[in-house]
């Protein structure tokens, strides 16, 4: 099976009825590049930059961040690299950030991700400078984690423009034009306001891990309620469906980059809901590609509509598994 998966690398991810699906990789550090390229990833749909801040006592300087990002951008050889700004807090801790994160009353609902970046603006400025400089060496996009409102996007854009101006005034080469700016859709409120958010961003990346957790109020890492964590809950599926619809209506790209995207069990459902870009760990990519090759898009859309009519996640599971077995 390893061999047949390796042969898949250069095969396009196209459905039986000829729709092209873009399969991209989720990356943490430059060392993950080799695997992403080997799996045939057509870009990086999610670079989790917080890993550059974890397991160390000091903060990475702009040059260090730039070097790491440039390595990834060049390694992807013309494919787009979607760089997410720092997403620490909640379950993701970084001792280099000291007491800033993970100490609140409820860290999952506290100072984390974009909220931290907008409070510690110099952190964000440094990161944006590194991203803009790396963007001079290939295609990059900027992705903002835990966005809950259009105001956060506008604030980040202001800071992005001022950083870009400063770098240009210093004669430093940066991405030209400026990279697209997108929002993670992973807070239920962001999904419900996706039509408003689509007016201020250039793309969406749906994070089904946090979206499931916050929608169902189930901690991703709490064993006692782990059995209730279910992305097939109708509420989660409706939020995904609405977000995808809002993106399509606003004509902006939308991808899914949570664990759901890397699990072939969900591929037909996500495609049926209108998703054409999936980003996942490189190890899962060949299996998802195999699944895409077997799917008929019209049948998948049809089944997705039937699933969206259901109220019960058990029934949803059954409809999905039945489709997967027969298609
Ligand atoms: C998500 O929440 O689905 C996601 C992709 O982001 P992370 O897993 O890094 O929180
Ligand atoms: Mg997340």
Briefly, what is this?
This protein has 327 residues and is an alpha/beta fold. The protein has helices at residues 2-7, 33-38, 62-75, 113-119, 121-134, 150-169, 188-192, 194-197, 208-216, 234-250, 264-272, 285-294, 297-308, 313-326, and strands at 22-27, 44-48, 81-84, 140-144, 181-185, 203-206, 254-256, 277-280.
* Biggest pleated-sheet summary: 8 strands, parallel, barrel
Structural class: alpha/beta
Task: Output the number of helix runs.
Answer: 14
Q: Strand fraction band?
A: 5-15%
Helix content: 40-55%
Catalytic activity: L-histidyl-[protein] + phosphoenolpyruvate = N(pros)-phospho-L-histidyl-[protein] + pyruvate
EC number: 2.7.3.9
Protein name: Phosphoenolpyruvate-protein phosphotransferase
Enzyme class: transferase
Describe the structure.
It is found in: Cytoplasm. Keywords: Coiled coil, Cytoplasm, Kinase, Magnesium, Metal-binding, Phosphotransferase system, Pyruvate, Sugar transport, Transferase, Transport. It comes from Denitrobaculum tricleocarpae. Its cofactor is Mg(2+). This is Phosphoenolpyruvate-protein phosphotransferase. By secondary structure, the protein is of the alpha/beta class. It contains 14 helices and eight strands. The model has no long low-confidence stretch (mean pLDDT 95). Phosphoenolpyruvate binds next to strand 2 and helix 9.
